Amino acid sequence: MSGTRLDIRGLQKQFGSRLILNHVDLYVHPGEFVAIVGRSGCGKSTLLRLIAGLETPDRGTIIQNGNQISGLNPEARMMFQDSRLLPWNKVFDNVMLGVNNDDSNRKKRTKQVLQHVGLAEYEQEWPGILSGGQRQRASLARALVSRPRLLLLDEPLGALDAFTRIEMQQLIEKLWLEQGFTSLLVTHDMEEAVALADRVILLKDGKVTLNKPISLARPRQRSSALFASLVGDLLEQVMDSHVCTKAMLQKISSGGSKNR
Q1: What region holds the ABC transporter domain (predicted)?
Q2: Angle made by CA atoms 100, 95, 93, in degrees to the nearest 5
């Protein structure tokens, strides 16, 4: 099954007196991987929640495969910064929650996806004994066990250490290439955005102010000069050139690459 197509037009969302999203227009191709970046509070997570149907727009429309989204989006699955596993359910049962009860292959599909994410030997363990990275693997498995057409990732790797984070990025990319779903990733990590995305969107003042294709071959070579340059350019756009000079940004970028 191919990924879903999204056509977002004139999207607005306000909380109280604060306008979070202001006439956002965005088109996402089927199977595309889009990263959404920007400063805290710019509306990144709100945009994902609107697409998932967890929030209702004040104005504008979200068209998915030709149909306007109304209520919960049945094509979408969402992964958050915390794993949100149920502590009273074992890993297998937590992942199986992602499959409809009327699916006769629930157990088979659950076993398969646990194998894909490297957790087959942990299926009868309690979530509390898993490491942070393993819990996020279980959360990813739960999101993908129903083979969704749209995966929404709301900073799911933000709390992980640098090495585990890179492993999870590689796993997400591998499963995306295999399954062909559309993916939208919210992240504060510019390296993560460049490593995973076909295109990076910058939200600023409630609007899309940058729409940058990432044309690097996969898998992305983090040590390459072009990779570092793209990371630096994104940092400059997010932080504004008058706040942070290009020399400072290059130092931040190269330092982050060395640490990882």
Answers
A1: 6-230
A2: 90
By the 8 A CB rule, do 77 and 148 touch? yes
At 85, the amino acid letter reads L
Structure tokens at 59: 């104005």
Which domains does the chain possess? Answer: 6-75+148-255 (3.40.50.300), 84-147 (no CATH)
Q: What pTM does this model have? A: 0.88
pLDDT digits (tens, 9 = 90+) for 95-122: 999 987 767 788 999 999 999 999 999 9
Of 202, 212, 245, residue with least CA distance to 43: 202
Task: Taking residues 87-100, report their average pLDDT.
Answer: 93
d(CA 260, CA 256): 6
Q: How does residue 148 score in pLDDT terms, banded at 50, 70 and 90?
A: very high
Q: Is the pLDDT of residue 167 over 60?
A: yes
